[in-house]
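Progress note, sequence design subtask.
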């Protein structure tokens, strides 16, 4: 049967897992003959959504509303709302918005291409994840990616930690590791397609493998991925302070392809709050891990996540957080003010902090951390790093961006022909978010003989 070519666009919100899902979906649709086009021209727009904070949901709701006006006048695009917020809001989305024709939770991504084709034939589809373990996955590697040189690979779905503020375990379901063979096969396919750097994704990568029959841990996976011929760099995120283990540090120390960068969310500097968050460690436990990391990997960069204004956070707790930031000296911290998520334990806790106060605390931590990040970056001026040039810089003509092994973004003067190249960069300047540099030389791999058996 001849099928008509439909056109689509994908809008991605939320975390890197969504970027991975979005790229896989794009690949799958294009393989079925769909054509990617501008979002205002498309027959269908897929919105990959996030529920982590209220703001993330509001942004998507207003986008859905905007498409609604187009839909009314032009009869398109129809919308497929997928991912965490789709799971969270479910049938409500269909009821509220006539332009929404597909709603699918994160564990139904494998059925989204069919659902879209049904929607084009005027069928509305609702797939919510009822069994938190079942996973109807897409079996396409993200071959048609937003970036040709780097790719994400999800190594485990879901999360079992139930931090009291967090919606992820409710919308993404239980922690289920993907099989090592499947992950390695996908990484090889990506490398054959030109990928030089992969980032392994999971809500808690350190518990990778705990649910597998064989004894195969995250450190084993890291080592095996690093051995994939042709791959230059392996990154991973996110680590959990309760589950981070010595064997991961050893793997990083032994294998230079595993980048010396760790995102280890601390969330609060007060033990009392950490307990109420159900995080399972104290500030002291946390401090021991980063001490050990810095001993074993002197150049390591450590980033963290932090929430201010958790219910019951007193001025004293907040001061502990400020002290903690000064002691830990993180390279970068993703900060957020606490957003109550319906259905999570923290949303019902007493002593919710007023918005104004949360805002005040957020701006204080940001100011403090910006100064620390700036100081840490400033020290790097004059130093040399190996940088993989992977994209155009967000602003500034004739500028490219890349990352150091320690995951710092470096902006350098350069042109398109240099994209995808590994080069030696001298750092010439620093801000709290970026390093600035100049290319000293290019790394040449043409003399590297690769033997594939
Ligand atoms: N699994 C990872 C990342 C989870 S989501 C981890 O354990 O850290 C990314 C970040 O969003 C979290 O680290 C947390 O800092 C933030 N976050 C999660 N729920 C939140 C909420 N209700 N309000 C504000 N920030 C939140
Ligand atoms: Fe959320 Fe905690 Fe799981 Fe991270 S570890 S996704 S913060 S429940
Ligand atoms: Fe958001 Fe879901 Fe990721 S809630 S942060 S898209 S796991």
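Output:
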């Amino acid at each position: 049967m001849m099928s008509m070519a439909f056109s689509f666009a994908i809008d991605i919100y939320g975390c890197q897992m969504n970027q991975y899902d979005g790229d896989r979906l794009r690949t799958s649709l294009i393989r079925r003959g769909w054509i990617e086009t501008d979002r205002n021209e498309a027959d269908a727009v897929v919105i990959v959504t996030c529920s982590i904070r209220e703001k993330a949901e509001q942004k998507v709701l207003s986008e859905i509303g905007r498409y609604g006006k187009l839909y009314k006048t032009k009869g398109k695009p129809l919308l497929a709302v997928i991912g965490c917020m789709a799971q969270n809001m479910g049938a409500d989305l269909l009821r509220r918005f006539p332009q929404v024709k597909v709603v699918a939770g994160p564990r139904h991504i494998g059925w989204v291409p069919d659902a879209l084709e049904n929607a084009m034939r005027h069928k509305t589809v609702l797939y919510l994840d009822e069994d938190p373990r079942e996973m109807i996955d897409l079996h396409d590697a993200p071959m048609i990616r937003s970036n040709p040189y780097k790719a994400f690979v999800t190594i485990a779905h879901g999360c079992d930690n139930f931090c009291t503020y967090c919606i992820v375990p409710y919308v993404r379901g239980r922690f289920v590791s993907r099989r090592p063979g499947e992950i390695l096969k996908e990484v090889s396919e990506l490398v054959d397609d030109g990928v030089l750097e992969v980032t392994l994704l999971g809500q808690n990568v350190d518990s990778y493998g705990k649910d597998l029959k064989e004894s195969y841990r995250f450190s084993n996976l890291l080592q095996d991925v690093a051995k994939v011929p042709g791959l230059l760099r392996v990154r991973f995120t996110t680590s959990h302070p309760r589950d981070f283990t010595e064997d991961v540090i050893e793997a990083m120390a032994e294998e230079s392809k595993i980048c010396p960068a760790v995102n280890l969310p601390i969330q609060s500097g007060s033990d009392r709050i950490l307990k109420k968050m159900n995080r399972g460690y104290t500030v002291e436990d946390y401090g021991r891990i980063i001490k050990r990391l810095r001993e074993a990997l002197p150049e390591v960069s450590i980033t963290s996540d932090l929430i201010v204004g958790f219910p019951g956070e007193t001025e004293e707790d907040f001061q502990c957080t400020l002290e903690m930031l000064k002691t830990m000296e993180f390279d970068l911290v993703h900060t957020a003010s606490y957003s109550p998520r319906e259905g999570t334990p923290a949303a019902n806790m007493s002593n919710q902090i007023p918005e104004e106060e949360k805002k005040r605390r957020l701006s204080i931590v940001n100011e403090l951390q910006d100064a620390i990040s700036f100081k840490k970056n400033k020290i790097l001026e004059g130093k040399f790093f190996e940088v993989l040039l992977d994209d155009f810089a967000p602003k500034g003509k004739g500028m490219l961006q890349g990352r150091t092994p320690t995951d710092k973004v470096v902006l350098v003067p350069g042109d398109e022909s240099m994209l995808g190249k590994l080069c030696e960069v001298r750092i010439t300047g620093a801000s709290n978010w970026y390093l600035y540099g100049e290319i000293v030389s290019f790394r040449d791999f043409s003399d590297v003989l690769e033997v594939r058996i």
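DSSP finds 13 helices and 19 strands in the chain. Work on this subtask will continue into the next period as scheduled.
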